[in-house]
Protein backbone atom coordinates (compact mmCIF):
# COMPACT_ATOMS: atom_id res chain seq x y z
CA UNK A 1 0.00 0.00 0.00
CA UNK A 2 1.22 3.50 -0.88
CA UNK A 3 0.49 6.55 1.26
CA UNK A 4 0.51 9.77 -0.77
CA UNK A 5 1.24 12.26 2.00
CA UNK A 6 1.00 15.39 -0.17
CA UNK A 7 -1.36 15.64 -3.16
CA UNK A 8 -3.42 18.67 -4.23
CA UNK A 9 -6.42 16.90 -5.73
CA UNK A 10 -8.45 20.03 -5.01
CA UNK A 11 -6.47 21.80 -7.76
CA UNK A 12 -8.39 22.91 -10.87
CA UNK A 13 -6.20 20.63 -13.02
CA UNK A 14 -8.29 17.72 -11.69
CA UNK A 15 -11.64 19.34 -12.48
CA UNK A 16 -12.36 17.11 -15.53
CA UNK A 17 -11.92 13.74 -13.78
CA UNK A 18 -11.22 14.36 -10.07
CA UNK A 19 -13.76 11.87 -8.74
CA UNK A 20 -12.76 9.15 -11.18
CA UNK A 21 -9.09 9.57 -10.27
CA UNK A 22 -9.72 9.53 -6.52
CA UNK A 23 -12.14 6.61 -6.67
CA UNK A 24 -9.58 4.54 -8.60
CA UNK A 25 -6.60 5.12 -6.32
CA UNK A 26 -7.14 2.08 -4.02
CA UNK A 27 -7.18 -0.24 -7.04
CA UNK A 28 -3.80 1.19 -8.03
CA UNK A 29 -2.28 0.53 -4.61
CA UNK A 30 -2.69 4.03 -3.15
CA UNK A 31 -4.49 3.39 0.12
CA UNK A 32 -4.19 6.78 1.83
CA UNK A 33 -3.97 10.41 0.68
CA UNK A 34 -3.50 13.71 2.47
CA UNK A 35 -4.76 16.72 0.48
CA UNK A 36 -3.32 19.98 1.89
CA UNK A 37 -5.15 23.24 1.29
CA UNK A 38 -3.37 26.41 0.15
CA UNK A 39 -6.22 28.93 0.50
CA UNK A 40 -9.49 28.98 2.40
CA UNK A 41 -11.28 27.83 -0.75
CA UNK A 42 -8.89 24.95 -1.46
CA UNK A 43 -8.92 23.97 2.22
CA UNK A 44 -12.72 23.75 2.11
CA UNK A 45 -12.46 21.59 -1.02
CA UNK A 46 -9.92 19.32 0.67
CA UNK A 47 -12.25 18.87 3.64
CA UNK A 48 -15.13 18.05 1.29
CA UNK A 49 -13.03 15.46 -0.56
CA UNK A 50 -12.04 13.86 2.74
CA UNK A 51 -15.70 13.57 3.67
CA UNK A 52 -16.55 11.97 0.33
CA UNK A 53 -13.70 9.46 -0.05
CA UNK A 54 -12.77 7.15 2.85
CA UNK A 55 -9.07 7.00 1.86
CA UNK A 56 -8.63 10.79 1.62
CA UNK A 57 -7.68 13.04 4.55
CA UNK A 58 -7.33 16.81 4.58
CA UNK A 59 -4.97 19.49 5.86
CA UNK A 60 -6.04 23.13 5.99
CA UNK A 61 -3.90 26.22 5.70
CA UNK A 62 -2.79 29.33 3.85
CA UNK A 63 0.20 28.88 1.55
CA UNK A 64 2.76 31.72 1.66
CA UNK A 65 2.18 32.44 -2.04
CA UNK A 66 -1.55 32.89 -1.41
CA UNK A 67 -1.71 35.20 1.60
CA UNK A 68 -1.80 38.61 -0.16
CA UNK A 69 -5.33 39.29 1.08
CA UNK A 70 -4.86 37.88 4.58
CA UNK A 71 -7.28 39.04 7.25
CA UNK A 72 -7.11 37.89 10.90
CA UNK A 73 -10.62 36.45 10.74
CA UNK A 74 -9.35 33.88 8.24
CA UNK A 75 -7.62 32.12 11.13
CA UNK A 76 -10.98 31.59 12.81
CA UNK A 77 -12.29 29.96 9.63
CA UNK A 78 -9.23 27.71 9.53
CA UNK A 79 -9.88 26.80 13.17
CA UNK A 80 -13.40 25.72 12.27
CA UNK A 81 -12.19 23.66 9.31
CA UNK A 82 -9.34 22.11 11.30
CA UNK A 83 -11.82 20.66 13.79
CA UNK A 84 -13.74 18.81 11.10
CA UNK A 85 -13.53 15.03 10.94
CA UNK A 86 -10.56 13.69 8.96
CA UNK A 87 -8.56 16.93 9.10
CA UNK A 88 -5.13 15.74 10.23
CA UNK A 89 -2.79 18.73 9.88
CA UNK A 90 -2.33 22.46 9.38
CA UNK A 91 -0.88 23.01 5.94
CA UNK A 92 0.41 23.81 3.50
CA UNK A 93 1.97 26.78 5.33
CA UNK A 94 5.43 28.33 5.46
CA UNK A 95 7.63 30.91 3.76
CA UNK A 96 8.47 31.37 0.07
CA UNK A 97 10.97 34.08 -0.92
CA UNK A 98 11.63 32.72 -4.41
CA UNK A 99 9.22 34.79 -6.50
CA UNK A 100 9.41 38.60 -6.39
CA UNK A 101 5.63 38.87 -6.78
CA UNK A 102 5.01 36.81 -3.63
CA UNK A 103 3.49 38.60 -0.62
CA UNK A 104 5.87 40.74 1.48
CA UNK A 105 8.10 38.71 3.76
CA UNK A 106 6.77 40.40 6.90
CA UNK A 107 3.22 39.41 5.94
CA UNK A 108 4.25 35.83 5.19
CA UNK A 109 5.91 35.61 8.59
CA UNK A 110 2.86 37.00 10.39
CA UNK A 111 0.54 34.53 8.68
CA UNK A 112 2.92 31.67 9.42
CA UNK A 113 3.15 32.53 13.12
CA UNK A 114 -0.63 32.70 13.43
CA UNK A 115 -1.00 29.28 11.80
CA UNK A 116 1.73 27.69 13.93
CA UNK A 117 -0.05 29.07 16.99
CA UNK A 118 -3.26 27.48 15.71
CA UNK A 119 -1.49 24.15 15.23
CA UNK A 120 -0.16 24.38 18.79
CA UNK A 121 -3.63 25.17 20.12
CA UNK A 122 -5.28 22.28 18.30
CA UNK A 123 -2.33 19.91 18.79
CA UNK A 124 -2.08 19.23 15.06
CA UNK A 125 1.08 18.59 13.03
CA UNK A 126 2.16 21.04 10.32
CA UNK A 127 2.98 20.63 6.63
CA UNK A 128 5.70 23.24 6.09
CA UNK A 129 6.72 24.85 2.78
CA UNK A 130 10.17 26.49 2.77
CA UNK A 131 11.63 27.91 -0.41
CA UNK A 132 14.67 30.18 -0.27
CA UNK A 133 13.67 31.11 3.29
CA UNK A 134 15.68 28.66 5.34
CA UNK A 135 16.97 31.03 8.03
CA UNK A 136 13.63 32.66 8.78
CA UNK A 137 11.79 29.31 8.60
CA UNK A 138 14.08 27.75 11.19
CA UNK A 139 13.98 30.83 13.43
CA UNK A 140 10.16 30.90 13.48
CA UNK A 141 9.88 27.15 14.05
CA UNK A 142 12.10 27.57 17.11
CA UNK A 143 9.51 29.98 18.52
CA UNK A 144 7.01 27.09 18.67
CA UNK A 145 8.87 24.20 20.35
CA UNK A 146 5.66 22.22 20.94
CA UNK A 147 4.78 22.17 17.22
CA UNK A 148 5.89 19.25 15.04
CA UNK A 149 5.32 18.29 11.46
CA UNK A 150 7.12 17.76 8.18
CA UNK A 151 9.23 20.08 6.02
CA UNK A 152 7.80 19.33 2.58
CA UNK A 153 10.34 18.98 -0.28
CA UNK A 154 13.21 19.89 2.05
CA UNK A 155 15.97 21.88 0.32
CA UNK A 156 17.98 23.25 3.26
CA UNK A 157 21.45 22.33 4.45
CA UNK A 158 22.62 19.32 6.43
CA UNK A 159 23.05 21.61 9.45
CA UNK A 160 19.46 22.86 9.17
CA UNK A 161 18.21 19.29 8.79
CA UNK A 162 20.04 18.20 11.93
CA UNK A 163 18.54 21.12 13.88
CA UNK A 164 15.02 20.34 12.67
CA UNK A 165 15.40 16.67 13.55
CA UNK A 166 16.49 17.63 17.05
CA UNK A 167 13.33 19.74 17.33
CA UNK A 168 11.25 16.71 16.39
CA UNK A 169 10.39 17.61 12.79
CA UNK A 170 10.30 15.18 9.88
CA UNK A 171 11.80 15.86 6.46
CA UNK A 172 10.46 14.86 3.05
CA UNK A 173 12.32 14.66 -0.25
CA UNK A 174 10.69 14.75 -3.67
CA UNK A 175 11.76 13.53 -7.09
CA UNK A 176 14.53 16.12 -7.32
CA UNK A 177 16.66 13.89 -5.11
CA UNK A 178 17.12 11.59 -8.14
CA UNK A 179 18.58 14.32 -10.39
CA UNK A 180 22.24 13.91 -11.40
CA UNK A 181 23.21 17.29 -9.90
CA UNK A 182 21.17 16.85 -6.71
CA UNK A 183 24.18 16.76 -4.37
CA UNK A 184 22.68 18.66 -1.41
CA UNK A 185 19.41 16.70 -1.10
CA UNK A 186 21.34 13.42 -1.21
CA UNK A 187 23.73 14.63 1.51
CA UNK A 188 20.80 15.73 3.66
CA UNK A 189 18.91 12.48 3.15
CA UNK A 190 22.02 10.55 4.18
CA UNK A 191 22.12 12.55 7.42
CA UNK A 192 18.58 11.55 8.45
CA UNK A 193 18.95 9.14 11.42
CA UNK A 194 18.19 5.50 10.77
CA UNK A 195 15.65 5.58 13.60
CA UNK A 196 13.40 7.82 11.46
CA UNK A 197 13.53 5.24 8.67
CA UNK A 198 12.90 2.48 11.19
CA UNK A 199 9.72 4.16 12.43
CA UNK A 200 8.44 4.34 8.86
CA UNK A 201 8.99 0.58 8.60
CA UNK A 202 7.06 0.02 11.84
CA UNK A 203 4.02 1.83 10.42
CA UNK A 204 4.38 -0.12 7.18
CA UNK A 205 4.20 -3.44 9.06
CA UNK A 206 1.14 -2.22 10.98
CA UNK A 207 -0.51 -1.30 7.68
CA UNK A 208 0.33 -4.72 6.19
CA UNK A 209 -1.45 -6.52 9.01
CA UNK A 210 -4.51 -4.30 8.70
CA UNK A 211 -4.78 -4.06 4.91
CA UNK A 212 -3.72 -7.59 3.93
CA UNK A 213 -5.24 -9.28 6.99
CA UNK A 214 -2.09 -11.28 7.76
CA UNK A 215 0.43 -11.17 10.63
CA UNK A 216 3.40 -8.89 9.97
CA UNK A 217 6.49 -8.22 12.06
CA UNK A 218 9.43 -5.87 12.31
CA UNK A 219 13.05 -6.87 12.62
CA UNK A 220 14.52 -7.01 16.13
CA UNK A 221 14.43 -3.64 17.89
CA UNK A 222 16.65 -2.36 20.67
CA UNK A 223 14.95 -1.19 23.89
CA UNK A 224 15.24 2.43 22.76
CA UNK A 225 13.73 1.63 19.36
CA UNK A 226 10.88 -0.25 21.07
CA UNK A 227 10.07 2.80 23.19
CA UNK A 228 10.11 5.06 20.12
CA UNK A 229 7.95 2.62 18.16
CA UNK A 230 5.47 2.36 21.04
CA UNK A 231 5.17 6.15 21.21
CA UNK A 232 4.62 6.34 17.45
CA UNK A 233 1.96 3.62 17.47
CA UNK A 234 0.07 5.39 20.25
CA UNK A 235 0.16 8.65 18.27
CA UNK A 236 -1.08 6.77 15.20
CA UNK A 237 -4.03 5.44 17.19
CA UNK A 238 -2.96 1.80 16.89
CA UNK A 239 -4.06 0.05 20.12
CA UNK A 240 -1.63 -2.10 22.10
CA UNK A 241 -4.00 -5.03 21.60
CA UNK A 242 -3.09 -4.97 17.89
CA UNK A 243 0.56 -5.94 18.40
CA UNK A 244 2.87 -8.00 20.59
CA UNK A 245 6.48 -7.76 21.73
CA UNK A 246 8.26 -11.06 21.13
CA UNK A 247 11.88 -11.86 21.92
CA UNK A 248 11.90 -15.64 22.37
CA UNK A 249 11.72 -15.62 26.16
CA UNK A 250 10.23 -13.55 28.96
CA UNK A 251 12.41 -10.58 29.79
CA UNK A 252 14.20 -10.45 26.43
CA UNK A 253 15.91 -7.14 25.79
CA UNK A 254 15.69 -7.19 21.99
CA UNK A 255 12.22 -7.86 20.58
CA UNK A 256 10.28 -7.87 17.36
CA UNK A 257 6.89 -6.17 17.13
CA UNK A 258 4.33 -8.63 15.76
CA UNK A 259 1.21 -6.98 14.32
CA UNK A 260 -1.92 -9.11 14.35
CA UNK A 261 -4.88 -9.11 11.94
CA UNK A 262 -8.32 -8.75 13.50
CA UNK A 263 -9.07 -12.47 13.32
CA UNK A 264 -5.97 -13.60 15.22
CA UNK A 265 -5.87 -13.97 19.00
CA UNK A 266 -2.54 -13.22 20.75
CA UNK A 267 -2.49 -16.74 22.23
CA UNK A 268 -2.49 -18.31 18.76
CA UNK A 269 0.11 -16.00 17.24
CA UNK A 270 3.34 -17.73 16.22
CA UNK A 271 6.22 -15.26 15.93
CA UNK A 272 8.72 -16.05 13.14
CA UNK A 273 11.53 -16.69 15.61
CA UNK A 274 13.87 -19.65 16.04
CA UNK A 275 16.36 -20.49 18.77
CA UNK A 276 19.89 -21.69 17.97
CA UNK A 277 22.71 -22.95 20.13
CA UNK A 278 26.34 -22.50 19.08
CA UNK A 279 28.43 -24.89 21.20
CA UNK A 280 32.18 -24.43 21.66
CA UNK A 281 34.98 -25.70 23.91
CA UNK A 282 35.18 -24.02 27.35
CA UNK A 283 38.84 -23.21 26.68
CA UNK A 284 37.78 -20.95 23.80
CA UNK A 285 36.19 -18.52 26.29
CA UNK A 286 34.02 -16.80 23.71
CA UNK A 287 32.07 -13.72 24.74
CA UNK A 288 29.16 -11.69 23.36
CA UNK A 289 31.46 -9.59 21.16
CA UNK A 290 33.09 -12.69 19.65
CA UNK A 291 29.73 -14.20 18.71
CA UNK A 292 28.29 -10.97 17.33
CA UNK A 293 31.47 -10.23 15.37
CA UNK A 294 31.34 -13.67 13.81
CA UNK A 295 27.74 -13.12 12.72
CA UNK A 296 28.54 -9.70 11.27
CA UNK A 297 31.44 -11.24 9.37
CA UNK A 298 28.98 -13.60 7.69
CA UNK A 299 26.85 -10.68 6.55
CA UNK A 300 24.11 -11.12 9.16
CA UNK A 301 22.87 -7.66 10.15
CA UNK A 302 22.15 -6.96 13.82
CA UNK A 303 18.43 -6.46 13.16
CA UNK A 304 18.02 -10.15 12.31
CA UNK A 305 19.39 -11.32 15.66
CA UNK A 306 17.79 -10.92 19.07
CA UNK A 307 19.47 -11.52 22.41
CA UNK A 308 22.77 -13.42 22.48
CA UNK A 309 22.97 -15.48 25.69
CA UNK A 310 26.54 -16.59 26.32
CA UNK A 311 27.48 -19.30 28.82
CA UNK A 312 30.84 -21.09 29.37
CA UNK A 313 30.26 -23.73 26.69
CA UNK A 314 27.72 -22.23 24.30
CA UNK A 315 25.90 -19.18 23.03
CA UNK A 316 22.14 -19.30 22.57
CA UNK A 317 20.60 -16.96 20.01
CA UNK A 318 17.10 -15.94 19.02
CA UNK A 319 16.99 -15.15 15.30
CA UNK A 320 14.41 -14.44 12.63
CA UNK A 321 13.47 -17.55 10.69
CA UNK A 322 14.70 -15.88 7.48
CA UNK A 323 18.33 -16.37 8.57
CA UNK A 324 18.04 -19.51 10.73
CA UNK A 325 18.60 -22.11 7.99
CA UNK A 326 21.60 -20.23 6.64
CA UNK A 327 23.22 -20.15 10.08
CA UNK A 328 22.50 -23.82 10.70
CA UNK A 329 24.21 -24.82 7.45
CA UNK A 330 27.06 -22.29 7.23
CA UNK A 331 28.03 -20.94 10.65
CA UNK A 332 30.84 -23.12 11.97
CA UNK A 333 33.39 -20.82 13.59
CA UNK A 334 33.92 -17.67 15.62
CA UNK A 335 37.45 -16.52 15.07
CA UNK A 336 39.61 -19.62 15.62
CA UNK A 337 36.98 -21.35 17.73
CA UNK A 338 34.97 -24.14 16.13
CA UNK A 339 31.19 -24.02 16.56
CA UNK A 340 28.55 -26.72 16.46
CA UNK A 341 25.25 -25.03 15.69
CA UNK A 342 21.92 -26.73 16.38
CA UNK A 343 18.30 -25.63 16.72
CA UNK A 344 16.80 -25.88 20.21
CA UNK A 345 13.33 -25.31 21.72
CA UNK A 346 12.81 -21.96 23.41
CA UNK A 347 12.31 -23.79 26.72
CA UNK A 348 15.94 -25.00 26.55
CA UNK A 349 17.50 -21.55 26.29
CA UNK A 350 20.29 -20.93 28.80
CA UNK A 351 19.12 -17.62 30.24
CA UNK A 352 21.90 -16.11 32.38
CA UNK A 353 20.98 -14.87 35.81
CA UNK A 354 20.88 -11.08 35.92
CA UNK A 355 23.65 -9.94 38.24
CA UNK A 356 23.12 -6.70 40.11
CA UNK A 357 24.87 -4.75 42.80
CA UNK A 358 22.69 -2.84 45.25
CA UNK A 359 24.01 0.56 46.33
CA UNK A 360 22.47 2.68 49.09
CA UNK A 361 23.24 6.39 49.17
CA UNK A 362 21.78 9.81 49.85
CA UNK A 363 21.57 12.52 47.21
CA UNK A 364 20.87 16.23 47.36
CA UNK A 365 17.97 15.76 44.92
CA UNK A 366 16.62 13.27 42.41
CA UNK A 367 18.16 15.19 39.53
CA UNK A 368 19.62 12.99 36.85
CA UNK A 369 23.18 14.21 37.39
CA UNK A 370 23.01 13.59 41.15
CA UNK A 371 21.69 10.03 40.76
CA UNK A 372 24.16 9.29 37.93
CA UNK A 373 26.97 10.28 40.25
CA UNK A 374 25.94 7.42 42.54
CA UNK A 375 24.89 4.97 39.83
CA UNK A 376 28.05 5.31 37.73
CA UNK A 377 30.45 6.13 40.60
CA UNK A 378 31.68 9.39 39.15
CA UNK A 379 31.96 13.04 40.12
CA UNK A 380 28.78 15.03 39.60
CA UNK A 381 30.54 17.42 37.23
CA UNK A 382 31.60 14.52 35.03
CA UNK A 383 28.02 13.23 35.08
CA UNK A 384 26.79 16.63 33.88
CA UNK A 385 29.27 16.58 30.99
CA UNK A 386 28.27 13.04 30.02
CA UNK A 387 24.56 13.93 30.05
CA UNK A 388 24.95 17.15 28.06
CA UNK A 389 27.02 15.34 25.43
CA UNK A 390 24.07 13.05 24.68
CA UNK A 391 25.54 9.81 26.05
CA UNK A 392 22.81 9.13 28.62
CA UNK A 393 19.38 7.56 28.20
CA UNK A 394 16.53 7.48 30.70
CA UNK A 395 14.16 4.57 30.11
CA UNK A 396 15.87 4.07 26.74
CA UNK A 397 15.16 7.65 25.63
CA UNK A 398 18.06 10.09 25.09
CA UNK A 399 18.20 12.79 27.74
CA UNK A 400 20.50 15.82 27.72
CA UNK A 401 18.96 17.63 30.70
CA UNK A 402 21.01 17.17 33.84
CA UNK A 403 18.18 18.62 35.94
CA UNK A 404 15.62 16.02 34.86
CA UNK A 405 13.99 14.57 37.98
CA UNK A 406 13.99 10.77 38.17
CA UNK A 407 11.30 8.65 39.78
CA UNK A 408 11.42 5.23 41.38
CA UNK A 409 11.78 2.50 38.78
CA UNK A 410 13.57 4.62 36.15
CA UNK A 411 16.38 2.91 34.25
CA UNK A 412 19.44 4.96 33.29
CA UNK A 413 22.07 3.81 30.80
CA UNK A 414 25.22 5.46 29.50
CA UNK A 415 27.47 4.56 26.63
CA UNK A 416 30.53 2.80 28.03
CA UNK A 417 29.25 2.77 31.62
CA UNK A 418 26.43 0.23 31.57
CA UNK A 419 23.09 0.83 33.24
CA UNK A 420 21.39 1.08 36.61
CA UNK A 421 17.88 1.29 38.00
CA UNK A 422 16.65 3.69 40.65
CA UNK A 423 15.16 0.83 42.63
CA UNK A 424 13.80 2.75 45.61
CA UNK A 425 13.40 6.32 46.87
CA UNK A 426 13.30 6.70 50.62
CA UNK A 427 12.73 9.52 53.03
CA UNK A 428 14.59 12.78 53.55
CA UNK A 429 17.38 12.99 56.13
CA UNK A 430 17.76 15.72 58.71
CA UNK A 431 20.22 17.41 56.37
CA UNK A 432 17.66 17.49 53.58
CA UNK A 433 19.17 14.68 51.48
CA UNK A 434 17.05 11.95 49.88
CA UNK A 435 17.81 8.29 50.52
CA UNK A 436 17.96 6.11 47.40
CA UNK A 437 18.67 2.52 46.48
CA UNK A 438 20.37 2.00 43.12
CA UNK A 439 20.49 -1.40 41.44
CA UNK A 440 23.62 -1.43 39.27
CA UNK A 441 23.78 -4.13 36.57
CA UNK A 442 27.09 -5.98 36.47
Can you walk me through this structure?
By secondary structure, the chain is of the alpha/beta class. The chain is built from 13 helices and 22 strands. The chain has helices at residues 18-24, 40-52, 73-82, 105-122, 134-142, 158-166, 183-191, 194-212, 223-235, 288-297, 321-330, 368-375, 380-388; strands at residues 2-4, 30-36, 56-60, 87-96, 126-131, 149-152, 170-171, 216-217, 243-246, 256-259, 273-279, 305-311, 314-320, 333-334, 337-338, 340-344, 356-363, 392-394, 397-398, 411-414, 418-428, 434-441. Strands 1-2-3-4-5-6-7 form a 7-stranded parallel beta sheet. The protein has a 6-stranded antiparallel beta sheet with strand order 17-22-21-20-18-19. The radius of gyration is 26 Å and the shape is globular.
Q: How does the helix and strand content classify structurally?
A: alpha/beta
| Residues in β-strands, percent | 25-35%
Strand segment tally: 22
Note the overall shape.
Answer: globular
In the sheet with the most strands, the strands line up as: 1-2-3-4-5-6-7
What is the arithmetic mean of pLDDT?
A: 92
Helix share bin:
25-40%
Number of helices, where a helix is a run of at least 4 consecutive DSSP H or I residues: 13
Low-pLDDT segments = none
Report, as a whole number of angstroms, the end-to-end distance.
46 Å
Radius of gyration: 26 Å
Biggest sheet overview: 7 strands, parallel
